[in-house]
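Explain this one:

_____
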Amino acid sequence: MQERFALIYATHRGRKRFQENCVHVKASEAEACGGADAKAHLHPAVVLGPSKSSEGFRMYYLVRWLD
């Protein structure tokens, strides 16, 4: 697992882990922040992952929000 910049699709920001289909990995912090869109629920963040959960899903863990 490694830290990555990403856009996360989240309707609320209280969660700490996200399934792979909600996370869009980006090459840089600028790219993640530039793609943010609160109306579309896309929030820039630093995530750790992916990791396989006990249920068999690939998950990313929130390190911190960038906005």
About this structure: The CA atoms of residues 2 and 14 lie 22 Å apart.
